[in-house]
Amino acid sequence: MQKLPLNLLKRIEQRIQENSFREFSDTLNLSDFSSNDYLGFASSEVLFSKTYELLSEKKSLQNGATGSRLLSGNHFFFKPTEELISSFHETESALIFNSGYDANIGLFSSVPQKEDLILYDELVHASIRDGIKMSNAKAHKFLHNDLEDLRKKIFRKRELFNSAQIYIVTESVFSMDGDLPNLIALSNLAKEHKCLLIIDEAHATGVFGKKGQGLVQELKIQDTVFARIVTFGKALGCHGAAILGSKELKEYLINFSRSFIYTTALPPHSVACILEAYKSLETSNGTNSEVIKLQENIRFFKEETLKNGLNTYFIKSESAIHCCIIPGNETVKKLAAKIQANGFDIKAILSPTVPKGKERLRICLHSFNTKEDIQSLVKLLATFIK
């Protein structure tokens, strides 16, 4: 077998020297405060059983989709699932992609054109950045959640590119900080300047709203958003993603989004699981008990950090993601190891994933975390860092 080139080996060595080398860790049998399984759907026996029953009922015994959706892979489950997703999220259409990464690559590489301009929050996800890099449009970042900086950039770019279509891109919950932009003000700004707003709702779906519809719908601004990206590998406990928008946007993506066109579709059991997960969110009384439990745990965690004098260490967050800043890769890794040794699965987030000096413990809350575990975790954290 041929060896890795020397210049690549040097890059690995540099990562090791900087204490930022990534490698797989063993699955830990600890209290979960690290996964994105916010509602516990990923390990739900009920969801697993309902998916199996649906597959059996439809006599779907396929292991794979057999091809792209434009060839042989457009199996029975796609249509009802996309219809339920669009209805649940109060939008005209939904188009399922194989992952959130594929959705963002497909959207940003195909929709903004050469004469267009993309203004994106400096902390948007890597998948958005990669999609933007693949686009022919011009792109500029604005300061994180800074609407005044965005406004200045809109004025400046309008002077240079008078006829350009401007796309504004942000996340409703930022994956590494857990904080939220002012989406209402952002929506008004986009409307005022005739910009098209794109919002990634990966970490808001299943978390905000009485049924987990997301932050956009909780704020009732869905009619002002050009496109939303919802993913299923987090609160919904499945796999895949969907782009929400107009029927014309869906038709355009089917024809021009390369990450949709040139890939084998999700297999029947994956899409059936998505369908059943949405059915689990869609309840007759207008609320979902797991979503409500999660929201209660978020409030309780914030109360406990304040009570234990830790709130100044945390980035302000109303989401399920709470980040405790512990500067230095080595320092934060050691602290994570201590907490894991005490029974809690918490991960250290290192630079260069986050800026140097902003290394952190990323704590994810779930509907299934007990009040006792949350209290114990916060008290343990307080003894180690105060």
Characteristics:
single chain; 386 residues; alpha/beta; Aspartate Aminotransferase, domain 2; Aspartate Aminotransferase, domain 1; 2 domains; seven-stranded mixed β-sheet; three-stranded antiparallel β-sheet; 14 helices; 12 strands; globular; PyrdxlP-dep_Trfase_small; pyridoxal phosphate; Aminotransferase class I and II; PyrdxlP-dep_Trfase; aminotransferase
Largest sheet: 7 strands, mixed
Task: State the total count of DSSP E strands.
Answer: 12
Query: Could you say how many structural domains there are in total?
Result: 2
In spatial order, strands of the major sheet run 2-8-7-6-5-3-4
Q: Helix coverage percent of residues?
A: 40-55%
Proportion of beta-strand residues: 5-15%
* Overall geometric form: globular
Secondary structure class reads alpha/beta
The level 1 CATH classification of the largest domain is: Alpha Beta
How far apart the termini lie comes to 51 Å
Q: Outline the low-pLDDT stretches.
A: none
User: Any guess at the CATH architecture of the largest domain?
Assistant: 3-Layer(aba) Sandwich
SS summary, helix count: 14
Query: What's the CATH topology label of the largest domain?
Result: Aspartate Aminotransferase, domain 2
CATH-defined superfamily of the largest domain: Type I PLP-dependent aspartate aminotransferase-like (Major domain)
Could you explain how this protein is built, in words?
- The chain is an alpha/beta fold.
- It contains 14 helices and twelve strands.
- The protein has helices at residues 6-17, 45-57, 78-88, 100-110, 126-133, 147-160, 183-192, 215-218, 247-256, 258-261, 268-281, 289-307, 329-341, 371-385, and strands at residues 31-32, 93-97, 117-121, 138-142, 166-171, 196-200, 227-231, 241-245, 321-325, 344-345, 347-349, 360-364.
- The chain has a seven-stranded mixed sheet. The protein has a three-stranded antiparallel sheet with strand order 9-12-11, covered by helices on one side.
- Strand 3 (117-121), helix 5 (126-133) and strand 4 form a beta-alpha-beta unit.
- It starts with 5 loop residues before the first helix and ends with a helix.
- The relative contact order is 0.16.
